[in-house]
Write a structure and sequence with these properties.
GO terms for molecular function: oxidoreductase activity; zinc ion binding. There is one protein chain. By secondary structure, the protein is an alpha/beta fold. The protein is built from twelve helices and 16 strands. It folds into two domains: about 1-125 and about 300-330, Quinone Oxidoreductase, Chain A, domain 1; about 125-275, Rossmann fold (3-Layer(aba) Sandwich). Strands 3, 5, 6, 7, 8, 15 and 16 form a seven-stranded mixed beta sheet that branches. It has a six-stranded parallel beta sheet with strand order 11-10-9-12-13-14, with helices on both faces. Strands 2-1-4 form a three-stranded antiparallel beta sheet, with no helix packed on it. Strand 10, helix 5 (about 180-185) and strand 11 form a beta-alpha-beta unit. Helix 3 packs across helix 4 (about 155-165) and helix 7 runs parallel beside helix 10 (about 260-270). The radius of gyration is 19 Å and the shape is globular. The model has no long low-confidence stretch (mean pLDDT about 95).
Length: about 325
Amino acid sequence: MRAFIVESYGKDGLRAVDLPKPKVGPLDVLVRARAASINPLDKMVRNGEFKQLLKYKRPFVLGHDVAGVVVEVGADVRNFAPGDEVYARPRDLQIGTFAEFVAIHEDDVALKPQSTSFDEAAAVPLVALAAWQTLVDLAHVKPGQKILIHAGAGGLGSTVVQLAKHLGAYVATTAHTDDIERARALGADEVIDFTKTDFSEVLAGYHVVLDSLGGTNLEKSLTVLRRGGLAISVVGPPDPSFAAQLGQPILKPVMALLSRKVRNRAKKLGVNYSFFFMKASGAQLTELAALYDNGTLQPVLDRTFPFDQTLEAMAYVEQGLASGKIVVTH
């Protein structure tokens, strides 16, 4: 099968090769990929940004999102059968969706939303799980709360805006001038053009902020929170709770050091900071599929590339050109 592997860490470390089909474990389903999407996480893993935490054995196939058809199931699989149309975000250390076939633990797989094409279904597993886990599992968002979501027209932000509105929140978001109307159409109550206005000068009293930019943007985000509010960053710095999530408590002191500045700043302001790194969950994808099928959520795609142009698709995402998800199709 054709696949794109990380041979060495760095910008030029990804290349196309021919590999045997993956072996199917007793609890795995083998999926013939019809589409896969590209996430900023793919770039971070390719560049080795998590190599001390996620110890992939190179070479390994990259890719965190997929939609396709089950062609084989392991001996102990009970919930899926050949012919099922599915979507998934495979768990860490078992990724590999930039390939014609991928073996995925059945607990990470769900039947794809019936209302979506394969291209659309491939665009949503990672961002939909991240939206659910940040807003529902971590922030416990309640109706009437004020939520600020950065980059609300992007791949992640567009999904979080929709889910936050479904949960009954008042939603503010930042967007480029060209994306203002798109963000409003997704349901944002207030859209701030970041090219003209500093969000931290016009917003205050927010319960939750979801940051996908980091750095100065994260520091400013702390200032718009009400006392006891929560800033969640998907780009870091990682905090001690992330070490526990990885099952590596020995790393807690390191992560405490990495996030000390932002945690101290948050403490002085009377607010909270949390780093977020999503977990694979077929059960949550099943719940989310129902939200796509009833129209509560809609996939937001920028454009598609043929599978053999996966490197070009990665470059497009890295250039910051995408407004929505980028999908590669088979």
